[in-house]
Design brief:
With 124 residues, this protein is mainly beta. The chain contains no helices and 11 strands. It has strands at 4-7, 10-13, 18-24, 33-39, 46-51, 58-60, 68-73, 78-83, 92-99, 113-114, 118-123. The strands form 2 sheets. Strands 2, 4, 5, 6, 9, 10 and 11 form a 7-stranded mixed sheet that branches. The N and C termini lie far apart (40 Å).
Length: 124
């Protein structure tokens, strides 16, 4: 069982930056694919960024490519999402998720464990 706790959300002006963190419990964290997803009001949960178990591979949604960076530290059981050049359209609840299969995939339905989410609000 893995428990995930996100932090780092908040209110920021357009063009600003935020760094989200996800702290994971459990000894098998280093074998899991980790992802960040987001859900805006009235919309479905969507893929933002994914990182492979060893950090060698990363994937981003087109809408955040070049602005967001996902990283992980398996020695500290943490995953981060650095968000730069934020836009009002980035406003959403951001979730950290773990896929115990270790396969890199973007569908939220494939992820086994989820955090409680952290709110990111970008004002114009």
């Amino acid at each position: 069982q893995v428990q995930l706790v996100e932090s780092g959300g908040g209110l920021v002006q357009a063009g600003g930056s935020l760094r989200l963190s996800c702290a994971a419990s459990g000894r098998t964290f280093s074998s899991y694919t980790m992802g960040w997803f987001r859900q805006a009001p009235g919309k479905e949960r969507e893929f933002v960024a994914i990182i492979s178990w060893n950090g060698d591979s990363t994937y981003y949604a087109d809408s955040v490519k070049g602005r967001f960076t996902i990283s992980r530290d398996n020695t500290k059981n943490t995953v981060h999402l650095q968000m730069n050049s934020l836009k009002p359209d980035d406003t959403a609840v951001y979730y950290c998720a773990a896929d115990r299969s270790g396969v890199v995939r973007s569908s939220p339905n494939e992820y086994n464990y989820w955090g409680q989410g952290t709110q990111v609000t970008v004002s114009s």
